[in-house]
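Saturday, quiet lab. Running sequence design on the structure tokens for the scaffold JK sent over.
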């Protein structure tokens, strides 16, 4: 019986999950075991691509007997980027009573929220508070991160500040997605697997 088959249905500690997952990542990505540390980003640091996430997800299902697709996480984060514009539109409408159209927002994306707030002032005659850009950015980020809660994906305070800074200068989904994918670390994958083990996860 293979080691993976033996793992199905068994109980695990978090430490055992981490060790098994590190072996999976090493095999799937062809990296050194010493590189697969808890804080290593699967994409930025270890070079994971779409096909690698499929392989990692398949091996996780074999090893832990859990219904888990690593590629789903990546795909959900990419889809999450499409929420930037509609969510920002909702925030601005609630805050200032102005509903900006997609055609109106699109040319402003390269200048970020800062440019959008300047547009509200110059084109709609809205008095914009000095720190409005930052406040709107924080609210946008709070709403966006809630969308990731279903993935057991959390964004730390320092990372959230950096993401808000990105939004201040650029509303392009690509930049935000790239930075958010950086947060998909080995430790995050361990947490995903542990969450899905449910009662089969025991204290170490």
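Result came back. Writing it out in full:
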């Amino acid at each position: 019986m293979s080691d993976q088959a033996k793992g199905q249905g068994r109980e695990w500690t978090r430490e055992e999950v981490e060790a098994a997952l590190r072996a999976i990542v090493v095999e799937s990505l062809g990296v050194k075991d010493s590189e697969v540390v808890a804080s290593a980003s699967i994409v930025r640091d270890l070079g994971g691509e779409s096909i690698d996430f499929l392989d990692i997800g398949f091996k996780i299902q074999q090893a832990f007997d859990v219904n888990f697709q690593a590629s789903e996480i990546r795909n959900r984060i990419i889809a999450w980027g499409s929420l930037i514009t509609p969510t920002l539109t909702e925030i601005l409408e609630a805050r200032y009573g102005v509903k900006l159209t997609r055609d109106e927002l699109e040319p402003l994306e390269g200048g970020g929220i800062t440019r959008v707030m300047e547009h509200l002032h110059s084109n709609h005659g809205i008095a914009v508070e000095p720190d409005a850009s930052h406040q709107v950015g924080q609210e946008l980020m709070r709403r966006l991160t809630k969308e990731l809660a279903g993935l057991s994906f959390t964004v730390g305070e320092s990372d959230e500040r950096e993401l808000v800074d990105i939004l201040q200068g650029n509303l392009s989904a690509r930049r935000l997605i790239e930075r958010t994918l950086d947060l998909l670390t080995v430790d995050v994958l361990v947490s995903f697997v542990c969450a899905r083990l449910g009662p089969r996860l025991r204290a170490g």
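Notes for JK: The mean pLDDT is 88. The chain has two domains: 3-70+184-200, 80-182. Ask whether to fix the surface positions before the next round.
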